[in-house]
Prior knowledge:
The complex is a heterodimer of chains A (792) and B (351). Chain A has 25 helices and 17 strands. By secondary structure, chain A is an alpha+beta fold. Chain A has 4 domains: 30-269, no CATH class; 327-619, no CATH class; 657-695; 696-792, no CATH class. In chain A, strands 5, 9, 11, 13, 14 and 15 form a 6-stranded antiparallel β-sheet that branches. In chain A, helix 2 packs parallel to helix 7 and helix 2 (34-60) packs antiparallel against helix 8 (198-217). The longest helix of chain A has 39 residues, at 657-695. Chain A is elongated. Chain A starts with a helix and ends in a 16-residue tail after the last helix. Mean pLDDT of chain A is 82; it is low at 302-309, 620-625 and 641-653. With 351 residues, chain B is of the alpha+beta class. Chain B folds into 2 domains: 1-170, Immunoglobulins (Immunoglobulin-like, Sandwich); 175-202 and 238-349, no CATH class. Chain B has helices spanning 12-32, 35-61, 175-185, 221-227, 253-272, 297-307, 319-326, and strands at residues 7-10, 63-68, 72-74, 78-87, 93-104, 109-119, 123-133, 137-149, 155-170, 204-209, 231-235, 243-247, 277-283, 288-294, 332-339, 342-349. In chain B, the strands form 4 sheets. In chain B, strands 1, 3, 5, 6, 8 and 9 form a 6-stranded mixed β-sheet that branches. In chain B, strands 14-13-12-15-16 form a 5-stranded mixed β-sheet, with helices on both faces. In chain B, strands 2-4-7 form a 3-stranded antiparallel β-sheet. The radius of gyration of chain B is 30 Å and the shape is elongated. The two termini of chain B are 54 Å apart. Residues 187-202 of chain B have low confidence and may be disordered. The interface between A and B is large, with 61 and 64 residues. Strand 4 of chain A pairs parallel with strand 6 of chain B, so a sheet runs across the interface.
Amino acid sequence: MQWLKRLFDFPQDDIEICEGITVTSSVYEIKEKRLLTMLLKGIIVYLLSMGAVGSYLTCVGSECHMLALNIVIFVSAIICSLLYYNVWVENIGYIIFFSLFAALMYLFRDYINSGFYSVVNDSLESAADFFEMRGFTQYNEKISDTRLAITIMAMFVGVFINIVLNNYISRTMRYITASIIIFTIILFPLYLGLEPSTIYAVMLFTGLLMSFFMKSGQHFRMHRNENVYRKEKWGLTYIKDYKSMLQLFILSLIIILIFVGAMNIIVPKKDFAKNSQDVSYKKKTMDTVYNILTLGIGGVYNFYNNTGGLSSGRLGGVSTIRLDYQTDVELKFVPHSMDTFYLKNFTGYEYVPYANKWEKNENFEDPSEECEQVAYLLRGNYKRAKKNGELGENSSKKFARGIAEVKNVEGPNLSYIPYYTLEGATPLIMGKTKRYEYYPRFDDTVTATSGSVLVAAKYSKVPDDNKEAIDKLISDSGMKRSYTVMKNVELLEKYYQDNVPYTISPGATKNGNDFVNYFLEVNKKGYCAHFASAATLAFRRLGIYARYCEGYAISYNEVIDEGEISTKNNNYEDYYEGYNALGKTTVVRYEATDADAHAWVEVYTSAKGWVVADVTPSSDEEDEDNENFWSRFRRSLENRRSGNTGNTGGFKIGINDEVMKNISLAVMFVIGMIIIAFLTLRLVPVIRYKNRFNNASLDDKLIMKYTSKMRRLERKLPELKRKKNHDMQIDYLRDSEVLVASGTALEKVKNILERAAFSKKPITSEEYEFVMEILKKINLKGRKEEYKDKED
Amino acid sequence: MVKNRRLIKVHIFKIITYCILLGLVSWFYFFLRSHLFLMLLILMIITVPLSIVAGMYLSRRIDIDLNCAEKDIIKNTESYVGIIIKNPTYLMTMNVKVLLEAENEFYNSKNTLEIALPCRIHGNYEMMLPVNLSRCGIVNYSVKKIYVLDLVGFIEYKKNVDVKRSVNVFPEAETEYRQKAGEVGGGKTETDETNKKGHDFSDVSDVREYIPGDRLNSIHWKLSAKKDDLMVKDRVSMSDEQMVVLVDLAGDNEVVDEVLSLGYNVVDSLVNDGIFVKLMWWKEKEFEFETRKILYREDLKEAYTDMYEADIYESNDKISEYISGVMPELRAYVRICYKEGKVDAVVEETI
């Protein structure tokens, strides 16, 4: 029946210590207000739940009204804690609380729904950045004010977490269960390499440390009465002491503030993130996680190793491409033709069916170097023309040299190589800028080299699993081996345009299906990666060397519509020299977004070497007109809309990492000052004593030494305090056998001390040394039993 | 305060659990390479030694004291024992186990009660333990050791201390027992005296100057005022005008306790009535009688305090013989004893 007693806290009995001695039951009448300890437990719950919610939101960058969120979660945590006041309050209170919660959820369902999807979208965006993919499902957000929607949703989530945690923390301080709940919530953003704001890390750690200490201290249980003490099997225990709990809370907070502050100085978050990118066994899980994100739980069973939109050859499970229109790459160059300007960052060598990916050419020389052969020739032509003074925008010699300045703003860490350049495919790290020297090809005078065909021949493999579908494509499109390369390209392009619609929402490739086969036989719609992959295999099937490419394709129209003239410190001559099909244009700065990301095909022709074969049909073609560059640019400037949309204003309260760092430093400073003050207070008397001692006469030195020795002894021998003079003190030390020396020696010591204290005749240094030697013989361990613990 | 060697008690299960958690956090850190998990991991690692060192230091500096407000307690009334934990440091712990030993020397009963208390930062924690003492005797409260648990709960530091407090428990006033005094006091030879409380009925043999230690009751105020110096009355020994009361400490604990209560009430009542009492009890070990002259209540308390150091014995039928041998001039005395199934005050004639 112990559990029943504990549940209802039946009155407890007297405790008989032994016969005739009983602790009465009035010990249970010693009371303390439960509200105080309940409040403190509520604060622990608040720290944990707000820590979890705040961590998640700050990790994925979801903006909300933090102050309001904090207030609501704090108040609800306190209310949840106070619900355990007594059985009636708990039972009725919970019913009312849940009813209210459910009613409010219903009332605010649209906001909650919208806020939830908003956070999901932010999370998926973060995931897209992490996986360097551009395609994730986007959820529709009903409420335009995302900040408000997220705030309301987070409030409900926070209150729910409060209810759950309160049960574990207030009753039984199960910090392990609470930790599991909290870290499950924030595991996903941590997996993506995101870190929460310091303030929420502080909250989390303070709550965890506090609950851990409470649990370890064994006095954490919730009781329904206000008794301070309780009888247990083994004895009597206190069950609540709010002052200790409050002190523990403050101690935990100070420890965490100092610790987090120190950690942020020793191992700053930003620097840490840079060095933590490469984790081998995490990489093994990335494919599975990515599948789950794109295909849901079914993605766990997906046979693909990789799924995604465009980047590094991974294909497959993208249902809808979600374009964020954020700048990935900033390009500065001089437009020189109406052809699309390509920045290539991936070249696919071999298609792996069912794994749905293009693999790079790891074993051979970098395929981008293939372009170098053409680039060499083009460069040679350019130099010769320059030497002969034949360069010019309108020269008959269509040779030129351009500089493309590429800055990786937020794009993947890959290379961004324009056609045709001698630069290697070195990855361009985010934030960095690189200038590529390239040589545009305007005519077909430059041919392929004999060496390049050997490399090109390697790009001919068609997997057996795809042959059937590819053959059908070839047959339907009318392509033939006997046709020239460019004719086949043309036929395929036309076939695609007429029969296979372009869409950014083609639906994910179903589980167990091959990407190309599914596109050609089942889905029959797709985006550039679909068209380019199938086209590459089709050309190879026809014996045409072809390779799959990814990167950014910036059309002439886009340059005109979205580019900005950038002449400040950017001279035309610095960026371009030679023939320009558009005449003397200007330096244009263009911000390429994921809308410009593209996949295309390169085919090898004996006449021209590797050329771009972009067979992806356009979804919304614009008519090209013959208006010149400047007229079109001016028109575009007039038509261009200005201004940004987005959430502006709003009262934003938050404590950013910098502030937290300052707070931690301030706390460390205060603690440091207290320690210094403490040490100063202890050290100053010592220093003054030393100073006085050094300046004292021998007599005074002896008295000072003796007095100091007696003071130290008095702490261990309280009885010594009663002895008023040195005679009595030495007699006591002798009698208690703490000081063992001959009677003569002790008498001499007394005499010397007397003279030192009262006589005008100074003592000698020998006498001083003698007394010091005797005093050294004081040994507390040797004292008599009866002289130990003498108390009144 | 004697501080002997300290021992520790290690909570292995908690350490194992903690190590498992630490392993888990480490795994998560190495998998996620998260700064948050790095901080958590380091926090978990440094908390343990800090807590252990802090616990060790705290256990050295912590102090225990006992406080009994009253030295003399009446039986079956609630008294308090204050247990004070003194912490001069700025550290704390949520669990200090105090082993409070309570002992009644007279009845040889002794046991220990474990009490768990918190230790606050730089302050005292006092617990007033309400105790009911239902047996007469000298009750000793002592604390010989305490256990200080560190904040993470891994190590309990044992600290030997030596704090002791004693209280004297005297019987409570019982009307029924006081009536007995009236019954037994009826046959005594009395002088003609007033019935004022505290008034000494014995004849004054001499008046002399006050010596420090003389009772205030003996001061001859009138004469002192006249002489301008304190004068006290020297009284005649009342060996033949006194009541001899023998408290027989034979029987079991319950019986003896009742005997003590009866004896106390009887003597107290007699003293209150102005009757001079000679209180005696048999000391089995020393094989002799202990005698006390009881003139005032304070004398009675003192006598009882000394009586509590005697031993209870099973029975001794030869007490009467012994009394006759020791005090041949005594004709009769009052014996407080257990007889015929009850505790009674019996007037016995000497052999």
